TrEMBL record:
InterPro entries in UniProt: GCL_type2/YbdK_subfam, GCS2, Gln_synth/guanido_kin_cat_dom, YbdK
Protein name (database record): Putative glutamate--cysteine ligase 2
Enzyme Commission number, as recorded: 6.3.2.2
Catalytic activity: L-cysteine + L-glutamate + ATP = gamma-L-glutamyl-L-cysteine + ADP + phosphate + H(+)
Family, similarity comment: Belongs to the glutamate--cysteine ligase type 2 family. YbdK subfamily.
Record organism: Microlunatus parietis
GO annotation (BP), single: modified amino acid biosynthetic process
Job description of the protein: ATP-dependent carboxylate-amine ligase which exhibits weak glutamate--cysteine ligase activity.
Keywords, alphabetical: ATP-binding, Ligase, Nucleotide-binding
A molecular function GO annotation: ATP binding
Family matches, as PANTHER family: GLUTAMATE--CYSTEINE LIGASE 2-RELATED
Enzymatic class: ligase
Amino acid sequence: MRTVGVEEELLLVDPGSGAPVAVAGSVLAHAASRSADDPEGEIEAELQQQQIEVETTPTTSLADLGSQVRDWRRRADELGRGSGARAVALATSPLPVDPRTTVKARYQAMIAQFGLTTLEQLTCGCHVHVGVESDDEGAAVINRIQPWLPSLLALSANSPYWDGRDSGYASYRSQAGMRFPTTGPTRAFSSGADYRDYVDDLVATGVPLDGDMIYFYARLSRHYPTVEVRIADICARTVDTVMIAGLVRALVDTAAAAWRAGEPAPATDPEPLRLATWRAGRSGLAGDLIDPAGGRPQPAAQVIDALLEHVDAALGANGDRDTVHAEVERVRTEGNGADRQRAVLDRTGDLADVVRTAAEVTQN
């Protein structure tokens, strides 16, 4: 069974006002003196001082993954409280914010290169790593999973607000992230070497600073033997993260099996994939999604059903079918994070309440 792990970016907010606070340095200083009770994995700085990143260790069990995610969210919130903040699973801040970039040479170089795109970028994602046997297998997987990735964005969408207003999107993070020129879907790759050469060619243009700035929605990790899927917003609840991770692993399993069987990969023209991603970020589960098979709009429920059917054998083989199906159905019934944020604002009229509610939901 393939290993799976996640990286989650958490927003640091004032417990009263709900506004982001630039206390990552203090949080990480407290985290440096770790105890035996701390979760395995890592807690690290991120681009802005109003966020941190936590990382689980690889596991083959979704139950274990859920425990790690829950433990890290709890620990991050405890550390945040020690610095007068809460650690919250919000993919963008509902309240206006002036991001403060972390004082680190690489991030300062990003400011010099990308200007306001770096200075204004305060978004939080969920990155899922799934183990692969080789770069060749990983490249074959990337070729085959890309048409399904917008469905993961629709399920995870958790960023309807930007600069104190409703953006009109279920995931405005997906819009903000596209400001970086290396974000998005890719062409197909003939091999792992073809993928690595392509990345080297992009870096050689001098636009991205390095290979870590290749923000493909699905990429080969430079540091681990994994495919990393980066399209999802940070999920509102731990169980949502587990669902997304289970679906990503099943997509990787399904794609790798098709590659080993000699089945051709679907077309991976980046422009239609980019439009499908826009559609998913715009309406989430509330409208149409682009059908990966036909490339035309279909009701979101129909496309999500097709996703579940596509990965059914892998979900069953991994023992994940019941868990993933139950959580997908719950999200379709109760709404994704964006739907729940909007419901709070409709009820209270106060964006600070949206943040405070999200802080409690983060621990669920």
